[in-house]
Fold each of these.
Amino acid sequence: MSYKSNPVLDKLPEHLRQYIKPQNYGDYSAIDQAVWRYVMRKNVDYLSKVAHGSYLDGLKKTGISVDHIPNMYGMNRILKEIGWAAVAVDGFIPPSAFMEFQAYNVLVIASDIRQLDHIEYTPAPDIIHEGAGHAPIIANPEYAEYLRRFGEIGCKAISNAKDFELYEAVRHLSIIKEAAGTPKEEIDAAQKRIEKLQDNMGEPSEIALIRNLHWWTVEYGLIGTPEHPKIYGAGLLSSIGESAWCMKEKVKKVPYSIEAAYTSFDITQPQPQLFVTPDFAFLNQVLEDFADTMALRTGGLSGLQKLIASKELGSIELSTGLQISGNFESVIGHKGNPVYFQTKGKTALAYREKELVGHGIEQHASGFGSPVGKLKGINLAIENMAPRDLKAYNIFEGRKIELDFEGGIKVAGEIVTGTRNLSGAILLVTFKDCKVTHNDELLFESKEETYSMAVGESVVSAFNGPADVNSFDLITHEISSTTIKPEISEQQTRLEQYYDQIRHFREGKNTTISRHKVLDALQNEYPNDWLLSVELYELAKANGDIEFAEEILSHLEDVKRGNPKVGHLIDDGVELVEDNFVIQR
């Protein structure tokens, strides 16, 4: 395995394990560690005033250190105490898979870390966003249950054919924006492609709507009142830029409601408005209200139509509890209800998420079709017929019969047997020498093979994915692009060595390093680097070396003049040092 497991991870199905990759902790450079430390020190200082109270408590409970990028092996030892776990992945993964991980109480953490040039914000998921943003809040039991429940419902949301195309485009943009040296024209082209896709998505799918809910709560949620909000969303908790931006009056604060599902967002821009929930319990209330609108709970003709439009593996559940999983190809409707459905290719039948014996993809390799509904002129549905009723209507073994359903569907053949559940209710009726027609159109004709007719008065549920995950080979994940690892120049390698030396000095591993020589090297070789100079300033102040501290400040002023865009980052770093120095005094 590429990761160290724990009792929570042991429960993950195989198709989710395909997304997991090793963290490779040794690949983090000293500059990466410095970026983490700067962001975390700044965040903890600022967020202690504006974040929900669970944040600081959660940092301790989940093993998130201010000084070191978290090692997921260590995190998992601590997370298992609250019933969660964490795994590393490569950037964005498909939304349904991301949410299914949540349903298993597993945090998905993009293990790469943003470049120093993107220290305030990156559109790419990284370990600052995932580890420092998502992990601490799950220590709150009520929020953790919301996250799990969100994943459980969200992974059943049905997509449409354009959703995956948009996901791939967003993933590509996040990768090239974070990659060093990507030409601006390439980034602009990728951005325009996303905008074009977003403008031509048509009616938003369920996955698009629930992704909006996820964005406005899990990623960018505020809690409290619009007048006095606190931060709990991971996107805000992990961005030193947006955590300050979101508190400004120009950012509109809206009471949270189901309207958030119909409010789109732009992942590449600071958000102009945010939603504020009064408490974590209200998040679950809105989630359940939204779930009531999903095909998962409404089923019916529209649910089947959503599955057909998705062109993805999905499932329906009939009123008997019988579940059919496959790629739905067509449906015949009558008076607003489905009266016949057809899948194409490998199909499996299940009951209560467990495949029915003899009804896997081997048996139904070319598809499965069946009528739905009541028999014409008979008020009692087949599923509600007792053995005497079935015999009265000639529905029993060895009888040749023609079943005439409402909506013009007819099934004619010799009944071979029936399949019942543990309660005795009939789920399937199996025929031989069978014909299925719709008015005068032949839908199916069995020759040598038997035909199993599903029993169900109605379609009560339609959802993404298979009913039984073991029925299909789901290990098919392929990505069009992967995170771009920068080539490290000899000059960059030397700079990383300087960062490493100062880190070792601060941690007491090697106190013989000349910090003055490091500053000289920065001034002569790396005049635009500012973060290591801030760390040198911190050490100078801690050691009471006032003259050296003043020299560093003078150098930082030169850096600010040469690159005004980093001026506020330098000032914030210096202010952090000053504040900590005052507290220590």
Note: DSSP finds 21 helices and 17 strands in the chain.
Amino acid sequence: MLAVWVEQLLGFASGALAAIREDERYPTLMAWARREGPELVDGDLALAQALAPELWSQTPLERLDFACEPLARPGRNEPCWCDSGRKTKQCCGAVSLPGHVPTHLMWMLSLREWKGDTLKAALASGRAPAQALLEAGLIAAESGQRGRAQQILESLFENADWARLPEQAEPAFEILVDLYQERGFHRKREALLDAVLDRGPLFLRGVALERLCLLHLDNDDLDSARAAFVRAQQTLPDSPTLAYIEAMLLLHEGHEEEAAERSRFWYRRLARQGDLEPEQLQFLADLAESPGATLAEQLLNAEADLAEPLMSLQALFDALSEAPRLDIRQENGVLSYHSSAREDTLFAAFQAVFQSQVEGETLLGFDTDPWPQAGDWLPALCAHPEWLDSPAVVQSLALALTSRFGSLPWMAPSLFEPLARRLEGWLAQVDEAGDAPMLWEVADNAVLLRAGLALVVGMERGARQHSRELAETLLTLDDQDSLGLRELVLDQLLREGRDDEALALSERAVADEQADPSSLLGMLMGRVLALYRLDRPDEAGRVLVMAHRHNPYALKLLCAESPRPAPSANGGSAEPGSRAEAWQYRTLMRDQWRVTPGALEWLCEQRPG
């Protein structure tokens, strides 16, 4: 019965609103209610007449600057407010409504219908009830009206009485943050997070801190992510989401065993409290058993239309045969790979469904995003595993997977390592062909080298040792470091505590006159950290002077606890010596300075006065 009443109420209210908008006069509504209203409530004229005044009283009117014009509720012996001429007790007072009529209903329906300047003025009036803004914004978001959803939800939080926000505001807040992210409104996103953290209700502050932690993880800023997690833990110590966040954070930091240990802690703690839904409890149990696999499965299941083909891709990888032989030659003192006719045919078949082209001038880019068409090319690839006999197909697939999943450590074992093993089979064939360099610009070498770079990046967070070993193999073949892998290997060596090897690599790179200047800051600062760890602070200080000359912003940003971000203009490489370059180094490596006893304090003492 309740569901029937809700459906009837929505239909009647929508019709009533259309009648009101004709001239915003009460008699017009009542004439409609008697003429057309009954057919919307099973022919019940009395119900239609009784319902219309209730809805009129809560309807915002443009002629009153979006205020309502509520009717005075009559006494039992007074004339009925439906203008029937009868006493209330003999008219609408004798009617019992089948269910509740929400006091914000007509505002919500109005917000769904108004457009352009009218909607803007209505929101600016500040009269819209929070619940109406909340529901209208959620409906707009669910129907794909992103601009309208953003406009309405912004009003909810801009005009909010924070202490009285309903707890249903949590999904609205998350949707608005996602809208800002999707539409590129990063300053608005940061301002909303700051506002909630500053004065929002407790339940929203915890969610904001969790989202902030995830944003820092997406940007590889592990130090800031850790700080946000600690704040979230202090704000909402019993939130089950914290188990999920901490597992992700630890996996990003490369602490797999600790991620499992902490996941078991959260499961024991939250299970004892006994107030979790069975699904939540099962997720925590799975997380405690295997954090990486659980997060990977959750991500795949959340991919909606792509969940099944992505799982099929994993199954395909598990059954991959040995990599076929390639045409590798040693010519004029260098090694060269030449694509065969069969490999070209396989790649052409793949390219018929995977229509994005690798951009030759960039290391890891396509001319268009391949993922909107993934519903076509993923199933086709799974149906034609022989396509992976072509290095060009492996290159495209590695680039695509890295662009979507490369920042997620838990995806490395199932998506990146199988492809890496296939590539390594081909690189072993290159090594067998002779002791000579494999230059980027020769023959089809770039296909193998670019695929290798994509897989190194894809495994960097979730399979660090495998990533470093592949990078070192590529550096051995391409001693000119066309891929810029030295800095990545240096970072990995420092994270593994292999400081002597890190120092040797950094010294060779700094001495190389042909080295890429964009990697110089990382090489110099890596050398400083390695020397400090090896208890050679005087030498570390001298190299630090060189680093400061190269980039005067680096020390300041490393020492600051919460500096203003300085991302590069296009999200890619930053200019050598710029604040953006210093920011990139901070996000990638400050956590290593922080976990090295005394290193960050020593570094800050070295800052020029």
Note: The chain has four domains: 1-101, 146-301, 310-483, 484-608.
